[in-house]
Amino acid sequence: MDLMVNPLQPIDRTLSIPGDKSISHRSVMLGAIATGITSIDNFLPGQDCWSTVRCVRQLGVEVTELGPDRLQVHGRGLDGLQEPDNYMDVGNSGTTMRLLAGVLAGQDFLSVLTGDDSIRKRPMARIAEPLRQMGARVWGRGNGRFAPLIIRGGHLQAINYLTPVASAQIKSAVLLAGLYGQGVTSVTEPALSRDHTEKMLAAFGAKINTDGLTTSIQPGPLTAQQIMVPGDISSAAFFLVAGAIVPGACLTVARVGLNPTRTGILDVLREMGAEVIITNQTQSSGEPMGDITIKGHGLRGANIGGSLIPRLIDEIPVLAVAAAAAEGATVIRDASELRVKESNRLQAIATELRRFGAHIGETEDGLAIKGGGNYKGAVCESYNDHRIAMACALMGLVASGPTIVHGAECIDISFPGFAETLASLYE
Ligand code: S3P
Asked: Which of the listed residues 99, 313, 414 should we mutate to test ligand 1's pocket, taking the one with most ligand atoms within 8 A of CB?
């Protein structure tokens, strides 16, 4: 599918965006191994989260669809999952594969996880290794490094795991396996990654404790909860950047998750000169949320790196667009993880933004962008990566003439309705 985008005039709008992808995945997985019925409101009906639903159904869990974004998960308790009679297909979803692997490591049966071309190229040793240390048997292609993964779980020991990468997926896989370990399992990460698993495990009654960069968990049962999923700040980011790069625009995105481990994008947009205002702050299932208003007055370049990176890891493609629209230079460092996402995002965004005439250089672990050019609409590729497709569409807002994004159907992975929300800005 092609997505066509035209330059955007200054506008003043309030938008809503779909539920948070990370929190939607976790609510289904924890609901599946809790006791009782977990209800989920504002579930993200994106392809990745449906992959998680499909997998837990194969494990014997009943999931009732009460509406397009309302689910009930009939939990089977920690030890109630059943051996699936076929392989489980996670599609494009790294979160499904890595977090579910943690749960499956605790099961006394055999399971096989596979997915699409992209996920079968992404590194899996990072979760297979700690799960093996806990006593699970995990096999994979390439000497255990790539999916398909075969997991024969059960009888886990607790470990103290020092992960070399600040990754919520690694941390979560170990913590979920820790629910089945003998003793206290701990994970220490080099910088704080998103902590939705820790927050949700605590809400479900797990004995979990975080001290600085170390989180510890004890085995024990979970109790079903009622979850209201906040809007996804990673989806909101596209419209926040739209508000920031279109001079004179004022955009409000309502009911967005504001977990501090995810709000790096707001810090950077403020540093770049955007006016960011938060109102109507509330809490939902232990997660802060609120309305975000952004006003564009022209941006300036920024330096982005260090412990900020895990707090905006998924926003780097769209931040590259903000940097191209800003005056001056932006340097992004410490972001080599982007090379092993749904696509090689550093290479993909540099290649695509150059089509508009942007001056953007790739470094081993980041990007160097010279902003402030006059950009021309372009024909772009999505690399079958939802965030690259949406970032290219955003660049079309500040380029002269039309922009076309090929392969835009992948946007449904995380943001069903993106094209319609974008189109509403022109009405
Ligand atoms: C996610 C964690 C991040 C992020 C991904 C979702 C999660 O990956 O990029 O989109 O839900 O835990 P890493 O933890 O591997 O950095």
From this structure: 313
Q: Note whether 217 and 258 are same-domain residues.
A: no
| 63 and 154 part of one domain | yes
Q: Is the pTM of this model over 0.85?
A: yes
- Ligand 1 midpoint to CA 330 (Å): 24
pLDDT band, very low/low/confident/very high, at 296 (cuts 50, 70, 90): confident
Q: What CATH number does residue 329 fall under?
A: 3.65.10.10
The amino acid at 53: V
Q: Write out pLDDT tens, residues 199-231.
A: 999 999 999 999 999 999 999 999 999 999 999
Cα of 313 from ligand 1 centre, angstroms: 8
The one-character DSSP state at 338 is: G
Is residue 297 classed exposed, middle or buried when 0-12, 13-18 and 19+ CB atoms within 10 A define those classes? exposed
Query: Do 191 and 257 share a domain, yes or no?
Result: no
Any catalytic annotation for residue 12? no
Q: Which of 259, 251, 98 is nearest to 169 (CA)?
A: 98
* Separation CA 386–CA 341 (nearest Å): 11
Number of structural domains (the chain) is 2
- Segment 268-289 shows an average pLDDT of 96
User: Which burial class, exposed, middle or buried, applies to 271 when counting CB atoms under 10 A from its CB (0-12, 13-18, 19+)?
Assistant: middle
